[in-house]
Amino acid sequence: MDRIAQRAPRPPGRTVAYEPPGTAPPLHMRAAAVLEAGWTGTSTVPSRGLYPHQWSWDSAFIAIGLRHLSPLRAQTELETLLAAQWADGRIPHIVFNPSVPLDAYFPSPDFWCSSTAGRTAGAPRTVQTSGIVQPPVHALAAWLVHLADPGLSRARGFLTRAYPRLAAWHDYLLHRRDLGGGGLVSVVHPWEQGMDNSPCWDRPLSRVTPAPARSFRRADLDHGAPEDRPTDLDYGRYVRLAADYRDRGYADGPGDFAVEDPAFNALLAASEYALDRIAHELGVTGAARRARAERLTAALVERLWDPASGMFLCRDVRAGELIPQRGVSGLVPLLLPDLPRDLAATLVRTMCGPHFGLGGTTRLVPSYDLLGEAFDPHRYWRGPAWFNTNWLLERGLRRHGERGRAEALRKGMLHTAGASGFAEYVDPYTAQACGVTGFGWTAALTLDLLHDRPARGRNGLTAIKGEDPA
């Protein structure tokens, strides 16, 4: 298992690595082996070395892939995460495994102090968690897991038990995190958005005084190359923000960092569509989930669309202005079924244009503007291509009729996953592996792309929308 989590070796220079491996076992068997290696009995770790606990949106993506191997295990993955939900509705971004030594990961449970600092917010007493959240992919994952084996799901009462927890999670976000007052959710820490080190955060983060370097030890550098990871300065700011939030008892309100992010809100809207389908399955009436999803889409367009950039941008809530940085987050709303047609077409042009290069200079969509001053093809979320964002964009392309581009992206993801050893992320130009190999959601989403062919009408978002297969 330790071997699976080792950092990928980096050959000198840039070499094209998009071709599939020559004599490797079948891709689905290799992907299944990665998930088996990460299985703890109740959930899947993203990486045994670098990420030895359960992560929130990782588990959602992992469940989407696991459903093709074991619908029961996929249900258990989500149930384990939901069992750590706080009384105020938040789903924490990490659920800590008590058998893992404290020094194996930082910030560790003794930093977050969830059961004490989070008592007022209703943190669980019997499990240690972080106090921040991650993007709300969970209802979408739950619906797709249900579709994998509806009989098993109904027999176990999977959706019956998950629905009230997912509804409470969405209510928390919509009612406690509308810090800008415009109907969108704000994140209060870069880790909440999931794209931790994006240049989109540089401007609002510049207001944050970093924690002293001597006050924490970065365990991530034991497993990842420093040139791939956030700088010490950025990490110090992350620690300061998290400590301040903890010291406020995890009470929500405007602080030094509050950002409306397009991907976070688009995923919430997509999951509202999923909750609408779940409510219909359970016979729940009056939930108005579809209306919520439509309002979120409208608010995204009103507050975050930037015609000059040809995409959605993040909004700095404290400064009251859009952040002029093109990150992949601004393309993710393409997955929404009710996105205006002209905006969808513009997003596709931007994705395939010089800033992201899909189908031209890149085969996978990078995490940040290729022409941006802060672009770095190897550093965490500042340029490399990630498999979860590309999975979302593949769905979005297919949803809006771009079948050729979607299929090309799908093939590129499968080739790159196999050639890179299921890397955490890759150089967008060469597909050179970065971060760790044997990464959980890379393997899981590879399985989903292999088994769940949207072209045959099994696109999760099509099912959520309730339309006939295209």
Class by alpha and beta content: mainly alpha
Give the uncertain stretches in residue-range form: 1-22, 454-470
Q: Let me know the average pLDDT.
A: 90
CA-CA gap between termini = 41 Å
**Strand content bin:** under 5%
Largest sheet, described in full? 4 strands, antiparallel
What features would you describe in this structure?
This protein is mostly helical and 470 residues long. Helix content is 43%, strand content 5%. The protein contains 18 helices and eleven strands. It has helices at residues 27-38, 56-66, 71-82, 109-112, 114-117, 138-148, 150-156, 158-176, 190-193, 202-205, 232-247, 262-282, 289-304, 341-352, 387-399, 403-419, 440-451, 460-465; strands at residues 54-55, 94-95, 186-187, 259-260, 305-306, 311-312, 315-316, 321-322, 385-386, 425-426, 433-434. The protein has a four-stranded antiparallel β-sheet. Strands 9-10-11 form a three-stranded antiparallel β-sheet. Strand 10 and strand 11 form a beta hairpin. The longest helix has 21 residues, at 262-282. It is globular and about 50 Å long. 56% of the residues are buried. Mean pLDDT is 90; it is low at 1-22 and 454-470.
